[in-house]
Amino acid sequence: MYNPKSLKAEEFISDEEIRETLDYAEKNKNNKELIRAILEKAKERKGLPHREASVLLACEDPEIIAEMYDLAEQIKKDFYGNRIVMFAPLYLSNYCVNGCVYCPYHAKNKHIARKKLTQEEIVKEVTALQDMGHKRLAIEAGEDPINNPIEYILECIHTIYSIKHKNGAIRRVNVNIAATTVENYRKLKEAGIGTYILFQETYHKESYEKLHPTGPKHNYAYHTEAMDRAMEGGIDDVGLGVLFGLELYKYEFAGLLMHAEHLEAVHGVGPHTISVPRIKRADDIDPSTFDNGIDDDTFAKICALIRICVPYTGMIISTRESKAVREKVIRLGVSQISGASRTSVGGYCEPEAEDDNSAQFDVSDNRTLDEVVHWLMDMKYIPSFCTACYREGRTGDRFMSLCKSGQIQNCCHPNALMTLKEYLMDYASPDTKRVGEALIQSELQNIPKEKVREICADHLKKIEEGIRDFRF
Fold this sequence. Notes:
By secondary structure, the chain is of the alpha/beta class. It has two domains: 77-389, Aldolase class I (TIM Barrel), CATH 3.20.20.70; 406-464. The protein is 48% helix and 10% strand. Strands 1, 2, 5, 6, 7, 8, 9, 10 and 11 form a nine-stranded parallel beta sheet that branches. Strand 8 (273-275), helix 13 and strand 9 (314-317) form a beta-alpha-beta unit. The protein is globular, with a radius of gyration of 21 Å. The mean pLDDT is 94.
């Protein structure tokens, strides 16, 4: 029985409900009257339920798809303006006891180099990331109670926050580790994490269990119910995601939206972020062995519809995707991207030897952070290194209420400009600095409140004088 308010995985992600939804969508994919009505509803900027969203996903009319893209772009501007938040992943350890067949970290892979960063090595990695200009990290680790216990993760977080090199500082640590207990989520909250991120991989239970044949991750319910335990543990910013390519994308899309609806129904707060990774080549993993891969056009359509259907969420795309794909989906709704990512353990200090590979997947966008920042500004986006909401307590329902009302832009726009200014002063190449200074002066005029604009302009001058970390 489908029940979005239930705390049981198979009730808030109901296989029967998804199948009925997909059947309904297929029957109505050419019903232009219904589709037009759904699009009109979407223009209210309050999102769409999974069944209506699935009708839009099934629609193949090029003219209507173009309208969807235009609406997605406008909704993105309404909620997030032209800001793109920057982050980098930091892989702590690739020791893992699970048997996930799509991930090279699986326990049976004997030829991947197993590594775990010491605290001294973390200092070196984070210093290298700070010297690029990063302020926000997402830490990653395999599931291994011996090598990667919660105490190790907590120690790593403490170390990361403690490192100050020149003007560098990591101001927000998001955490992407395996599903755990309420008690451990409380410990993560006390450690000062930002968002807790956990990818579902697939919402199709039968496929999930086949894809995770061994290890604690095999338990579908425990994994799927993790966000509820995280919320119970006090973490009010959580991030969802599926790994597109493992199961039929229409099934995953419906399940993803149902999970977002469940969080809203039970906790009053939907997902802070939604990530959209696609399966990529990695050590002993060939994506062609999974027959549910999606092409770039389908991927773009999914991104646009997530923006339309969950307008308040931050959408994340990583360097799994190429420059061309990222350029396309940023317009359609993506609001956070990684830059200069390394998916190997210890990959920021020195490149790995070919026979010492510890990467989780191949990176498609290999540009430096400076090149990515320059590229975004050339497209008139503001690369933002802002972490103010998290540090000012604007999380969970407080963030969502401000985001849904549009008031968050009163903080986000000036904060983005000030953190970009820091980057330009401390890390940018001369040409990137030149382009960035012109962009800041132009965007400063777009701050609607005169008092905020004056304060921001004053802070920008003080940043030039060497003062750091202003925030609204």
